[in-house]
Each structure stands twice: as C-alpha cells, then as structure tokens.
Amino acid sequence: MTKTELKYRFPSEYAEKIGFEYSNSTSNEHKKESGQFFTSKEISDFMGNLAQPKSDKISILDPGCGTAILSCSLIEKLIEKYSIQEINLSLFETDKIIIEETEKVISFLKRWLLEMGIKLNVKIEQTDFILFNSDVFSNNILFGNDAVQEYDYIISNPPYFKISKSDNRAQVAKELVYGQPNIYSLFMGISAKLLKPNGELIFITPRSFAAGNYFKAFRNSFFRNVSISNIHIFESRKKMFKNDNVLQENIIIRATKEKTSTINITVTECAKDLNKPQKYNYKTEELIDSNSKENILFIPSNSMEANTINVFRQWQNTLNDYNIQISTGPVVAFRCNGFLISDLALKVSVAPLVWLHNIKEMEFVYPLKKGIKQSYILDSEESRKVLLKNKNYVLIRRFSSKDDKSRLVCCPYFASYLKYKRIGIENHINYVYRPNGELSEEEIWGISALFSSKLFDTYFRTFNGNTQVGASELKQINMPPLERIIMIGKILKSTFKPTKIEIENIINNVLFETAYVKNRRSTNNFERVGTA
What we know:
Strand order of the largest sheet: 3-2-1-4-5-7-6-8-9
Radius of gyration: 26 Å
CATH topology of the largest domain: Rossmann fold
Distance between the termini: 61 Å
CATH superfamily of the largest domain: Vaccinia Virus protein VP39
Helix content: 25-40%
Number of domains: 2
Structural class: alpha/beta
Largest sheet: 9 strands, mixed
CATH architecture of the largest domain: 3-Layer(aba) Sandwich
Shape: elongated
C-alpha cells in the first residue's frame, strides 16, 4: 500500500477521501449536469448496515458508483456479519475522470480483502447503466434471459436530473416513464428488475417518487418487482451531502424481491446522528394502498403524521365525488406574452391576471405589483381560450417557497371581488371549481380553510417530498363529508377576519369525531390531529 493508503483502516475511509478531493476540484456546474452528489461515510455505513447476509459467495451491483464508497461500506458491513469467501462486484460510471479515482479505491479494497482471504472480482463498466441494461424490459425476461445478470445486492446513490421524454434512456425505459422523468427513478426501476429472487436493493434518492403523476408509471413497475422493508428520513435538507449545495429532500430505502408485511421507518435530523434514530414500524398496507391506481407511498416521520394518515383513510370521498374539480391555470406567461397588458390606458378590453403572489394564506390580494409582471391580460377572441369565467374559485399555489411554513398555500376567490366577465389564472396556480355550476360561498370558505389547515398540510407532506403542489396529488386527497365542509364554511363566513388559530379550532370542532384517532402506542390514549 502507498503511504497515503496506510493512513486509512477501511476502504470506505479512503473512498470518502478520494471523493472529497474530487468534489473540491470539480465545478458545481459539472456536478449538477452529471447529477453527482457524493456520499459521506456516515451515510454509506448506514446503508451498508441495512444489508442482510446471504451466502459465502455474493454479487454486488453499484450503478453510478462514483468512488465506490457505497460498495466499500456494504462489503465491510457484510463481512462483519458473515463469513464470505468470494465477491463479484459490478460498477457502472460514465465519468472518465472519476473512474481513474475509483480504480485507486478498488485497488485498495482488493488488497484489504486479500489480507482476510476474500477474493474480489471486479468489473468496471464505463457506459450508461440504463442503456446497457435495456434487456430487462424485454418480455423474454419472464422466461429467463441470459443477457440479464442478476445480483444479490444493488446499492446506489444514483444521479438526479430530469431528462426529456425523447431521450434514448427514457425511450428504452418507457415502462417507467410519464412526462419528463428524473433519471434516478430509471436507475431504481431497472435495479428492481436486476435482483435475484432473494436480492435486495439499498438506495439513497429524492423522495419525490412517492407521489404524483410523473412517477406513477415508475411506482406501478417498482412495487410489482420489490417490496420496501426500510425507509430512513432526514429531517434537515441542508446537511445531507458534504461539500455540495443540496436542498433536496432525500430518503434511504431498502427493498427486497421477497414480499414484506411491514415497513420500518427511522428518522434523524442528518447524517451525524444516524446511530440514534427515532424508530417506527408500520404494516405495509398502512403506507402503500396497493388497491389504488396511484400506488402512493406515505412516509410519516412521527406518530402525529401517522395518525393524520389514518384520519384521511376514514373519509371515503374526493372532491370529484361532490362534482368539484381541480385544474391548473391555463395562462402560460411566455406563450401568452403578446396578450399581457400592464397599461390600462390602452383602449382594449382586458381581464385581471392572477399570479402566484396574489395568493396569500386565506387572502386574495389584487392588484399587487411584483416586478414587471403584468396585472391584466387581453380579453379577445384569440386570448379567450386561456381565460376563465369569473366565478367562485379556491386558488392554490402550485409552488411553495422552501421557507414557507406551509406546503399548501391557498385562498378563497369570489366572483364579486373583481367586476369582470372573465379572469386569467397563471400556470403556477391550481384552481378548484364546479364545472357547469357554481361553488357556494360556504363551500369556498370550507375548502379554502381545509387546504390551509395544519391537518391537510401535515397529510400532504407525508407523500409529497418537494415544493411542487400538483393538481393530480390534490385530486386524490380524501375529503370529509360535504356537509362538514359546508358547516366549516358557514361558521367562517360569519366570522370577521378569523385568525389562523380560530380557523384551526373551527375545523377541529366540526370534524370532532374524525379528528380524534387512536394513538398507535396505547388503546387508552388518544391524540388530536391538526390542532394549532
């Protein structure tokens, strides 16, 4: 071993050092383009420790391996638990510069294992992991496919970036794709197909795959192939990856080919306290509704969130059952630029244009100038295809700021607010409405209050892992009975400028029977959900 290598007891320590040096010498632009975020030893050790021993001869796949720190930690943890004689390790990496560094780590790992009498066979593929394994989507795999190699363990911190639907990788993996896919989900979906019958995969990824239309096809495929047994949640966005400016909400999952009946969830603030997590255990059907077409994965980080999920499960209807729809604002600013008006002195017919900044919590503010954004849109035959009838709506922001206390920010809008026949709603807004009819004032107030409540925000966060609020996600939320919604609205309508606390109390009082749920830890202990 070189003098540098002799400073390190474990290959994972050396891999972390190599990765740290590479990260420091590489531009943020290059890392972002490649979706590279390097894993710390604390995280790689935690992931490696999730693996269960199998036999004395094992196979490991590390797609998008970087400096192979995950493979090193996995191997170190496995040989602590079991007597292993031979390891077949397959690594995939497209960055030629990283591969040169990875080879140093593998050389260290091979010598380290040889001292313990363990043989290591390594294959490093400098090629695209998705295209290389496109055969997994062949129907022949159902009857065995010699071209597809299967593995005991697949461990990965895959790249994270969006690719177009026309990208070759999206084309070969179209079973997993809807809309614009994020490449990490393709890594996960293919890996689920590459496991041996008793194999397991361990990934650290964004949690955005848990819900939403864009990941629906992926979830359907993924949950057909594997069952999740473990989820680890990091409560802090900012302390995940050393030396990288990452604000993504990430989780660690372990999934197996063998069906599991329970999911173990652990929670820490960041990587530094991985050795003392909070622990929770749930039945699989409590977190994944396999009877639903959406296959949403709920990820509660505490007992209150778990209780909130149970509250919503008691309700049987969505807004659609009440003849109420949710859509996204049709005005896409850059496409409608020729219609946007800022000067009312012009002798033209206009309609008000509602932007994100016009929506405050339970308050519609218009006009409200922000930068160069125009407050009006031309009302003409040509522009009318993107305008809406001026009637009662609930307006919900499609995007929340990372600093917002609430993921769901919405307000009531009444036709009487603006004396126009039509209005424009910009594309960063979702709107709730009754097709071929009108939402009553009580319905508007009730729905607005519910979507603005702590109860709904808590529930939404259990399956939504980013700052986007999609109409498809809102549509699938179970709602209380319509008469309860109207009752909430009736009380609010008669209350002068209700405070946040007053709104929360009204909701809890009206939903009294469904807002109390049995605490999981005691048959005699009850916890109220969504109180201020």
